[in-house]
TrEMBL record:
<dbReference type="Pfam" id="PF00196">
    <property type="entry name" value="GerE"/>
</dbReference>
<dbReference type="InterPro" id="IPR036388">
    <property type="entry name" value="WH-like_DNA-bd_sf"/>
</dbReference>
<keyword id="KW-0805">Transcription regulation</keyword>
<keyword id="KW-0804">Transcription</keyword>
<dbReference type="GO" id="GO:0006355">
    <property type="term" value="P:regulation of DNA-templated transcription"/>
</dbReference>
<protein>
    <submittedName>
        <fullName>Helix-turn-helix transcriptional regulator</fullName>
    </submittedName>
</protein>
<feature type="domain" description="HTH luxR-type">
    <location>
        <begin position="195"/>
        <end position="260"/>
    </location>
</feature>
<dbReference type="InterPro" id="IPR036693">
    <property type="entry name" value="TF_LuxR_autoind-bd_dom_sf"/>
</dbReference>
<keyword id="KW-0238">DNA-binding</keyword>
<dbReference type="InterPro" id="IPR016032">
    <property type="entry name" value="Sig_transdc_resp-reg_C-effctor"/>
</dbReference>
<dbReference type="InterPro" id="IPR000792">
    <property type="entry name" value="Tscrpt_reg_LuxR_C"/>
</dbReference>
<dbReference type="GO" id="GO:0003677">
    <property type="term" value="F:DNA binding"/>
</dbReference>
Length: 269
């Protein structure tokens, strides 16, 4: 970044922090970050325990919000590498989606059934620890018409971490004061549906394997995760498919989504 650009960027911090906390400042944050490099879309989700992801802010038009936010909140988030990283207590910082994605991610159900609909070339995100088990993830997205974020761009964007943390932290405190979240809501039903998928037909081990397969893991990765041999995983998969009455991974997420919507599925057979 040249001195003139650096001066413009630092001056932008002062203007940003002069905005009203909440949506106005989050919008200003997205504009400020765009001074570093092009970003097509921003979305800020807060992941908190078993609650469904809360969308605090986004820059989508109404036509795209249905896929990026509404559809995502209805269940696919359970397979999102960013969400899964949060459940593992991922440290704050700037991360690429592919750093958390399992092998064969682009052949997995999360990608094939949901993520490819977004038309994204790359997604990076700031992870912000909000305390009390809540984590904010501010995603910066580039569509397939754009190139991936370069190493230099990543290094520059990473310098904004402190400002990002302050703006998001204030927005979260404001949200909690104005609209506290209920103790239980649909998120628990979604989580329960995922955890109990096939419970009346599959063994406990088979359920573990199904959940890993849905999250994009290959048989080799499943074997590594569960400390069993790839051959054992292959046998389990064959038995799982026979019990569920399916022939491939591509039908698993469909069964899960039908569970969520109350339609006939194996989980309630």
């Amino acid at each position: 970044m040249r001195p003139k650009e650096l001066k413009l960027w630092t001056t932008g911090v002062a203007h940003l922090l002069a905005l009203v906390p909440g949506h106005a400042r989050l919008s200003g944050l997205s504009q400020w970050l765009r001074q570093v490099c092009p970003v097509d879309h921003f979305v800020l989700f807060v992941y908190e325990g078993n609650h469904r992801p809360l969308a605090l802010f986004d820059t989508f038009g109404a036509d795209k919000r249905g896929v990026y936010v509404d559809d995502y909140q209805c269940g696919p988030y359970l397979l999102d590498p960013f969400y899964l990283a949060c459940t593992r207590g991922q440290a704050p910082g700037l991360w690429r989606l592919r750093q958390f994605a399992p092998d064969h991610f682009y052949l997995g159900e999360y990608y094939l059934t949901y993520y490819q609909q977004t038309g994204l070339a790359e997604e990076i995100a700031f992870f912000v620890d909000l305390g009390a088990g809540a984590t904010a993830v501010l995603s910066l997205m580039r569509s397939t018409a754009s190139c991936a974020f370069s190493r230099d761009e990543m290094q520059l964007i990473e310098c904004a971490q402190a400002v990002v943390e302050q703006v998001i932290g204030e927005a979260w405190q404001l949200r909690q004061a104005q609209q506290p979240r209920p103790a239980q809501d649909l998120d628990f039903k979604i989580r329960e549906a995922f955890d109990q998928f096939g419970a009346h037909i599959l063994t406990g081990r088979e359920q573990e394997i199904v959940q890993l397969l849905l999250r994009g893991h290959s048989s080799a990765s499943v074997a590594e995760q569960l400390n069993i041999s790839p051959g054992t995983v292959k046998i389990h998969r064959k038995n799982i498919y026979a019990k569920l009455g399916i022939g491939s991974q591509s039908e698993l997420l469909g069964l899960f989504i039908r569970d969520l919507t109350g339609q006939e599925s194996v989980a309630v057979a």
